[in-house]
Write a structure and sequence with these properties.
Elements: E1 5-6, E2 9-10, E3 14-15, E4 24-27, E5 33-34, E6 49-55, E7 63-68, E8 76-80, E9 86-87, E10 93-95, E11 101-109, E12 118-126, E13 131-139, E14 142-143, E15 154-162, E16 165-174, E17 179-185, E18 188-196, E19 209-210, E20 223-225, E21 235-236, E22 248-256, E23 270-276, E24 281-285, E25 292-298, E26 302-309, E27 316-320, E28 327-335, E29 351-357, E30 364-371, E31 375-383, E32 388-396, E33 399-406, E34 414-421, E35 428-433
Parallel strand pairs: 13-21, 22-28
Antiparallel strand pairs: 1-2, 3-4, 4-6, 5-6, 6-7, 7-10, 8-9, 8-11, 11-12, 13-14, 13-17, 15-16, 15-18, 18-19, 18-20, 22-25, 23-24, 23-26, 26-27, 29-30, 30-33, 31-32, 31-34, 34-35
């Protein structure tokens, strides 16, 4: 990990609890700032020391959090932040009005009056340099509301990569000239996502689009801000496709697989994407607050349904509509709560079954798999005698996917699901009971 030295201070990246509204802090002091003298010490039973961390993801520049780590039974703290402001709290936060180098001093004592032990320590802190990020957002040939104002409102969402996690920073709404902008960014890697607000004239005409002109955060380009500001990072909104009118209906539910250590993105930040059999994005919708979504009036064909929740891996489900099956419902799209940058150990090249449910199966069974490749994968269900009862194939993209296999017509017994990627890859299998 890269470090930024500020005198004797070291910049590291750590995370704090979810109770801080997804804030992440970067310690400026890797080692305690200890007193360099004892001119104020009455005895050796106490020693002043503190650490300081920069609030690295809030929108407040020059905001620092100080923590007392003094030894002894301290009951009194006096902080001098070096800019004419003070605090009597044990662990204060302080925002400087402007950049610069400041001498911060902490004086501690073991009693309010007539202390038997007191000590002071001081250290210089140089504020971190901040950068800006912005660019035009194109809806078709021209930027939003530029040169003609059409009433669209854009939302630019900023995310930062912290310890291999995608962490939300802030939203910025923009109207004029089709230009988004973020200020006071510390060095790091960022994702930018652009969407139109519901009610904008073109809301249904363009996908939510990431920098790099991708509709999935996994395929987005990262912006590495380390030595300067960026003002011309253009984003071209991806248009939806016109579909002929049809009688097909797809209904489903977005399920968040919760894990306490990770914060989940709200449902409002989730997009459900309808793609054709070649994975070309066609249409999109947003789930309602309860997680339910629906596509109506679409032609009979085979489709892939996926969810994009920024920073979280999600499953993909293959659906086929026909005259005999005009309605498919009960689709379950899972948003995984784990580390999205991790892959199952030992499966950097190939596929792995991550879960099979429900087991025993009734009318259908769900097969979750992680694939480190993008390739057609054959799916086959055989019984213990080797007889094939179900066979199909589909193209799956790198990441987490989900296959639904009908099992209602299978006789009771033990079955094996065999997944065979096209190419020089080993098949994988899983057992289930009907």
């Amino acid at each position: 990990m890269k470090t930024v030295k500020i005198y004797f201070l070291v910049l590291l990246l750590i995370s704090v609890s979810a109770g801080l509204r997804s804030q992440y802090l970067a310690p400026v002091a890797g080692e305690p700032v200890l007193s360099g003298h004892d001119s104020f010490t009455i005895n050796s039973d106490c020693e002043a020391a503190f650490t300081v961390v920069l609030d690295s993801l809030s929108t407040s520049p020059y905001l620092y959090h100080f923590k007392d780590i003094s030894t002894g039974n301290m009951v009194s703290w006096h902080w001098d932040f070096g800019d004419g402001k003070f605090s009597l709290e044990q662990n204060p936060s302080h925002q400087y009005d402007e950049p610069g180098t400041f001498q911060v001093c902490l004086t501690v004592a073991d009693q309010l009056f007539n202390p038997t032990c007191t000590d002071e320590t001081c250290e210089e802190i140089t504020t971190l340099e901040y950068f800006s990020l912005g660019g035009l957002v194109y809806a078709g040939e021209y930027p939003l509301n530029n040169p003609v104002v059409n009433g669209d409102t854009g939302v630019a969402s900023l995310y930062r990569i912290v310890d291999n996690q995608v962490v939300f920073v802030e939203n910025q709404y923009f109207l004029d000239y089709g230009y988004y902008w973020f200020g006071y960014l510390i060095p790091g890697e960022y994702l930018v996502k652009i969407s139109l607000t519901e009610g904008s004239p073109n809301f249904k005409n363009y996908f939510t689009t990431y920098y790099g002109d991708a509709i999935s955060w996994i395929k987005a380009e990262l912006l590495n801000i380390s030595s300067g500001s960026f003002y011309e990072e253009e984003i071209y909104l991806v248009p939806v496709q016109d579909l002929s009118a049809g009688q097909g209906i797809i209904r489903g539910y977005v399920n968040f697989e919760q894990e306490p250590v990770y914060s989940m993105p709200p449902m409002a930040q989730t997009t459900v994407i309808l793609a054709d059999k070649d994975h070309l994005p066609l249409q999109f919708t947003h789930p309602n607050p309860a997680g339910y979504f629906e596509f109506t009036g679409i032609p009979y064909d085979s489709y892939f349904i996926s969810a994009d929740a920024t920073g979280k891996a999600a499953s993909t489900v293959n659906v086929t509509l026909s005259e005999s099956v005009p309605l498919v419902e009960g689709i379950n799209l899972t948003i995984f709560g784990g580390n999205p940058s991790s892959v199952p150990e030992g499966f950097e090249n190939g596929i792995k079954v991550t879960r099979v449910y429900p087991n025993p199966a009734k009318e259908k069974i769900h097969i979750g798999l992680y694939t480190a490749i993008s390739a057609p994968i054959g799916v086959k269900v055989v019984d213990i005698s080797g007889k094939t009862h179900f066979s199909t194939y589909g193209r799956f993209e790198k990441g987490f996917n989900e296959i639904i296999v009908p099992t209602g017509s299978l006789p009771a017994g033990l079955y094996v699901i065999i997944l065979q990627p096209q190419g020089n890859y080993q098949p994988v299998s899983a057992k289930f009971v009907r």
